[in-house]
Amino acid sequence: MSENQQHPALQVNKIHVSYGRQPVLKGIDFCLEQGEILCLLGPSGCGKTTILKSLAGLISLDSGDIKIKQQVVSSASKQVAAEKRNLGMLFQDYALFPHLTVADNITYGLSKVAKADKTKRLHELLELVQLYGQESKYPHQLSGGQQQRVALARSLAYHPDLLLLDEPFSNIDNKVKFELIEQVRDIIKKANVAAIFVSHSKEEAYAFADKVAILNQGVLEQVDAPEVLYHAPKSEFVAAFMGAINKVTIANLAPQQRHNLKEELHCAERVGFRPEHIGVVTSDAGDPVAENQISAILSSKRFVGSYYQLKLDTPYGAWLANYANGADLQVGQSVNLQVDWHQAIAL
Ligand SMILES: Nc1ncnc2c1ncn2[C@@H]1O[C@H](COP(=O)(O)OP(=O)(O)OP(=O)(O)O)[C@@H](O)[C@H]1O
């Protein structure tokens, strides 16, 4: 095993950061392997940009430390200058030089490299970001996605140890965004560089990141693969942040519902389940309710494309359900619900 594979590319150890007397990061702790992509995700003001600035060396720490490739770059007593951290950066506005060609933009940071090596690296990078043949063009002659790939090639030019991406897809048209995300992900994987990505969008995080770190008011709630965050959130905040969730207090559940819960949930106080885990059975008012079903009234419905999102008044409160045949349902009608309790999670 090589040196790089044995040690994480990045270690963030219990960092605390304040602006004046206001604590903003409260003990953030995570690691990243070489070639791994982590997304920082959370509501506005939770501290995503502050983490990125701490990694970039633009903000000093109150305590804790940051190591890049085993070297401490930030601690309460040490601050390696931003330009000495060997970081690549990619921002939402590409920040390409409009008067320079693609080739000159890409090699901008390689001024101290010998000409032959620079040309070799340029060709490798053009190949990597699939812009061969475009090297003499100027930024305004390229699409937004192509410009972002030029910016990415520039940020990878000097083999950074860590790539920082600050909302790089937010200015890209939705129609081509996910294609670009896939391309950028492929490029980062080929370059085998560790990358930290800040985003507001769950969908971008799902498509781009290997792991997602969910932040809440300066605290890291959970770091996991997107599927784990969605299906096995460790807190109610993460559960709700990752998508709609129906909540129930177990003590209120009828015994025939409660006994379908997984055994390990029997000692939880509250459980939640996703709207896709409710089956909807239409019924006529007055029809008997089957033992495993719950009767409810449809309070609203919303067409969201491949299904309808139903809002239901149930004996346990308002729930959401996803239902394909929503066109046939009338607001105000009674329906019976069958919850897949096996999918419920502790909150
Ligand atoms: N220079 C500053 N001085 C004082 N407080 C600041 C400063 N920059 C940010 N903050 C505060 O620190 C907290 C975290 O801000 P930060 O920009 O890291 O959040 P964020 O998660 O990136 O937010 P957004 O998603 O809106 O960009 C917020 O409460 C913000 O108001």
UniProtKB/TrEMBL annotation:
SMART domains: AAA
PROSITE patterns: ABC_TRANSPORTER_1, ABC_TRANSPORTER_2
Key words of the record: ATP-binding, Cell membrane, Ion transport, Iron, Iron transport, Membrane, Nucleotide-binding, Transport
GO biological process, one term: quaternary ammonium group transport
Gene3D superfamilies: P-loop containing nucleotide triphosphate hydrolases (3.40.50.300)
Gene Ontology annotations for the cellular component aspect, listed alphabetically: ATP-binding cassette (ABC) transporter complex
Domain named ABC transporter: residues: 10-242
Source taxon at top rank: Bacteria
A Pfam family hit: TOBE_2
A GO molecular-function annotation: ABC-type ferric iron transporter activity
Protein name stated in the entry: ABC transporter
Native species: Saccharobesus litoralis
